[in-house]
Amino acid sequence: MERLWAPWRMQYIGGTPRPGCLFDRVIEHPDDPDAELVVWRPPGAIVMLNKFPYNPGHAMVAPHAHKPSLEDLDDEETAHVMRAVRRTITVLRTSMKPDAFNVGINIGREAGAGIPDHVHFHVVPRWNGDTNFMAVIDDVKVVNEALAQTAEKLRQAFAAT
Asked: Which of 28, 53, 86, 151 is 20 to 30 A from residue 36's alpha carbon, by CA?
């Protein structure tokens, strides 16, 4: 029998959620432990890696405004977050060379939103073959790069562009 070790997943499965909104914490407190996953702080938005990614480079882009849905954002807030999404795709494309992207928003807990009170985009790089036999046969997803390594790579890429 082969074993796959992913001890960090236990925090996701059984960890105690921290109080308050993740995005508000890292926006208001750059020294917060979760801020180590922030890769870019553009005007009016924040870009950070998902702590429990579907793929390497899985980023979340949130407006500074703490609002639950896209239609709650005003035009300026919408422009800030969309500019950040667009640049995130560009940086991921040049630094990680994915073949494609999934970009989306889960609005409401029933739609899958893990942070339902603060709207945010998920930008997930995709590669040909990134869903392989592991996911199909064993319901296992392999993420092949450590978050800290991906975060540093993307911080450098945002700074360079």
From this structure: 86
